[in-house]
Amino acid sequence: MRDPDAWQRPWPAPAKLNLMLRILGRRPDGYHRLQTVFQFVDHCDLIRFRPRADGHIERTSTLPGVAPESDLVVRAARLLQAVSGCRQGAAIDVAKRLPMGGGLGGGSSDAATTLVALDHLWETHLGTDALAELGLQLGADVPVFVRGQAAWGEGVGEELVPLALPEPWYLVVRPPCEVSTAAIFGDEDLTRDSPPITIDDFLSGESSNDCLAVVVRRYPEVAAAMGWLRGWGEAKLTGTGACIFAAFATREQALTAHADVPPECSAFVARGRSRSPLLERLNG
Questions:
Q1: Is 261 left (phi over 0), alpha (psi -120 to 50) or beta?
Q2: Which residues are tagged catalytic?
Q3: Which of 56, 85, 237, 239 could bond to 103 as cystine, CB 3.0-4.6 Å?
Q4: Which architecture characterizes domain 11-163 according to CATH?
Q5: What is the pLDDT of residues 214-259, one digit of tens each?
Q6: In the chain, what are the domain boundaries?
């Protein structure tokens, strides 16, 4: 390892926001064809890696409800080992800051950071394209986190076109519930036949989320939080939720709204990023 301190510094796994989400149809394999726009924010899980010479992969942190063997960071590390033939191991500690079941992509982001970081630390040098292909085996959102650029996404979200987007301040609010993505995509009332739009349509203001109507019907906590946030700006749902968000021109404006968040909700303020903090860590 050329950088002896590389193992010491934490690696960021940032949240993403879906600025738009349309469901165009369902594929024969049961997955849905989507159009979406991904943007990162600078609110991140932090992952530390320690080398192991015995080839063993272990998660040293505790994640309630997620067994180490099924954790995406463990699966990502083992997949990279298998494909690259690397005989090194790693102890992985994840400091979770992103809520589970919030639509922020925390698990996918953790997996992507594990692939990118260990490719660097183990010096396997697979490169971005190969790592993104590996990431798709772990989850549809993993490739966008590996590539680290805000993007227009199609397919199941893995067909990506990089975008340069404005970088406002966001207030992200987590209502007191955890939304089941499977339940939302399985709901018979979910819109599955939206006509496709273009990137220009999005840039001109078309930013609806086809999951919103089903989410607010099934989860009154999200509906209540949306009602509150609309008093501060244009409230949007990220992915299938539960998190909702609004954009602000300044950090001070976002913090003013944050101070008024209903006590039953949690929230954070973060800056939108078209380039992921993970890439800055990798190249910094």
A1: beta
A2: 16, 141
A3: 239
A4: 2-Layer Sandwich (3.30)
A5: 999 999 999 999 999 999 999 999 999 999 999 999 999 999 999 9
A6: 11-163, 169-273
Domain 169-273 falls in which CATH fold? Answer: Alpha-Beta Plaits (3.30.70)
Give every CB contact of residue 49 below 8 A, 6+ residues apart in sequence: 7, 11, 90, 91, 92, 93, 117, 118, 121
Token representation of residue 66: 């997620």
What count of residues does the chain have?
Answer: 284
Q: Amino acid letter at 59?
A: R
Structure tokens at 183: 């339940």
The residues with which 171 forms a beta bridge, in sequence order, are 246, 269
- Per the CB < 8 A criterion, the answer to whether 130 and 10 are in contact is no
Nearest to 221 by CA among 200, 243, 204, 250: 243
pTM of the model: 0.95
Left, alpha or beta for 125 (phi > 0: left; psi -120 to 50: alpha)? Answer: left
pLDDT range class, residue 27, cuts 50, 70, 90:
confident
Instruction: Compute the distance between CA of residue 141 and CA of residue 180 in angstroms, rounded to an integer.
Output: 16
